[in-house]
Amino acid sequence: MVKLLIFKKHSRFYTTTTSEAKDRGAEVGFKEGKHEYLPYPQTILDKNPNLNQNPGWE
């Protein structure tokens, strides 16, 4: 079962590790400059004042 999933062409891993990632991202609203990094949760930012929010998520 695991072997079959590893080599499945449309798995998430395959999509995010090939040039198809940008094309597939456009389908769901991927924005360059914002969606390369996820935002830090506010609780983490509150606990560490030296940490800045990732770009595009201020």
TrEMBL record:
Chief localisation class: membrane
Entry's localization field: Cell outer membrane
Coiled-coil ranges per UniProt: none
Annotated InterPro entries: SusD_RagB_dom (IPR012944), TPR-like_helical_dom_sf (IPR011990)
RagB/SusD domain: residues covered: 9-57
Keywords: Cell outer membrane, Membrane, Signal
Organism: Segatella copri
Protein's recorded name: RagB/SusD family nutrient uptake outer membrane protein
Pfam families assigned: SusD_RagB
Stretches that traverse the bilayer: none
Family to which this protein belongs: Belongs to the SusD family.
Gene Ontology cellular component annotations, sorted alphabetically: cell outer membrane
